């Protein structure tokens, strides 16, 4: 009897059920979103979505990140900027965000809801395809998809959620390939690899590391059980290629277009990203590999209370383990050995080097895995793929229990009972804390009932089914507990705190539509495991340089500042740390320049002239005569005022927000800071003639009786008052005196790759911009392209004259940059379309398999 055909109704029911359960597990993410960014991977996804929304809303594809002062190739390498989930979230958000009066708040709430919903739906769809290969029974399939995609995957919300959601789909496609041996299936697998590789190089490396043993075992199984298909495949390879040539070529071209921009970005920044020094120098180096895997912590285990650990296995519970063991012993489906052997090898490679099983796993991984040298932590992804390797065995076990036609022999009974005993013992030994003992005792009783059912032929199916249901009912509260542990590990509480003088994080501060000019730099983002994260747009005053340097995190013993990811030196440099901490101005003007030398930088620092003299790497002696010892230009003072009428009134949380234009009266830089010489006064004039002076709120949450200049939109302003004051207002009054004698006057363009601003120079000197020196910048001064130089070891500097200067900086301008941006856009589009098509192809293959039995 042929199995029933998979239907869209069945598919939709499983996916929607998994989504609904996930919403119940994490209601805060959906009903009360507070940006619960759970650990590193979702933080990376937030950065990617933020950056993409910023680019899409400005109608451009950027190649330079203005927030962290690094090429965007850094993001292509590390944070899955080109991933399906980031692109889908950013595309929908970029369209909807323009309908919101509070785009920052909208983005945070939208990301919290949409990103996680898309992940769980995607993962559930992949789980459906995978589990449908092993059962057509809806009473097993639909609860199985919900259980696997939501409950068992909840702990991986803490880490690896993005890439891990691809695992069930990829495992399914590999399984289809080794079962059928069709050239189209190999082309589809190539395309799925390209989607992963084009999303993020590191993500692809770690994902392949997790899948390596499954791929190895799957092809080993096919050589034993699919010899006829292999021979037919090899004999008809030319004919099959000719028959499906358009399909194969299309897959190949799409794959190339997806990965091409990533490879270009990687190769053009390979040295700058420090990738060679940290990974590729360990190729075929067994000693370095052993050093990486010789950690001393105890082995991870698939039983309770481990999932919130980065290196810990996912908590699976006894219902899954017992069912999987029963399926391994009783099922006649030979594919079970693919999952069991790959699971065993993955667990071996997740161990330390020291035990014998660990040595076997690591030596096999080193000998067969072509990119094992690229992975710094072997354990993480092995542990993340674990649920998708063990749950098909669980489904096979449930099939045998419900079928009830086969009784295990004495030998299998003994093996099963021994295995269950070892699982109970392992759970007790690894976590015998008092709070966990009741769970272990109850589950031991349930396992005992299950084992007793093996000998009770009349009530066998009843006892086995009842014991499994009892184990599930005990495991579910524990899984729910694990979910709350994950949520409590969220770092969002830290990100809402004030950090020194960097400013306060506010809902609408982190606005992806905004490109506020930041006149200072900061290295406030420490290692991701220690403290506050300087997310894009988190601080109004500061741009981060944390990707360029790494400093001591709070509470950790002080270490010298060192180069981390991008720049032009590799060694720790204590004097550079001293220089960077002396003054946090992103742009400053030095009166004189001196030639670069080993002693010059030390002399500048020791003499206290770090902001009056700059060290320039240049050979032309005439350059060092450009400068002035004279007095700064006199201060410019202007006084203006106006009475704007009330317009664009909006109300939120008991506050009335008055949005209106100030017609260019205030410079753009006042949206993020006021110099100590600026003088701004804003008043509310009441109908009775009295006045109320408002307080500035630039750089912090807007409060009642305060104003926010520009609010990230040129020539605009917001005044916040209690709703009860609406009827009392007659007018507003604004006065402004600009006392600035030098510095940035106005910013006319600020979109990552393009920066244009007016700078008031107090004297003839050198303008130093604390952006890493990169030859791909083009600088124009007063409309003319000029040469710029490496200043103070790693930054940008060029001569400037007294008075107002129009400065324009463009990253990768010209045809090469335009072509690369076009390739990046095509790659983004194809990643989304190809990922959707992979599911369509997978569903079609599933129906074909069901039709052929």
Biggest β-sheet: strands ordered side by side in the sheet: 7-21-25-24-9-8
Strand content: 5-15%
Major sheet description = 6 strands, mixed
Give the distance, in angstroms, between the N- and C-terminal Cα atoms.
8 Å
General form: globular
Spans of 5+ residues with little confidence (pLDDT < 50)?
A: 270-278, 296-311, 491-507, 525-534, 552-571, 633-642
Helix share of residues?
Answer: 40-55%
Q: How many E strands? A: 26
Q: What structural class is derived from the secondary structure elements?
A: alpha+beta
Mean pLDDT: 77
The radius of gyration computed from the alpha-carbon positions, rounded to a whole number of angstroms, is: 31 Å
Number of helices: 27
Features:
853 residues, alpha+beta, five-stranded mixed sheet, 26 strands, 14% strand, globular
Notes on the protein architecture:
The protein has 853 residues and is an alpha+beta fold. The chain is built from 27 helices and 26 strands. Strands 7-21-25-24-9-8 form a 6-stranded mixed beta sheet, with helices on one face. A 5-stranded mixed beta sheet has the order 11-12-17-16-15, with no helix packed on it. The longest helix is centred in the C-terminal third of the chain and has 37 residues, at 815-851. The termini are close together. Mean pLDDT is 77; it is low at 270-278, 296-311, 491-507, 525-534, 552-571 and 633-642.
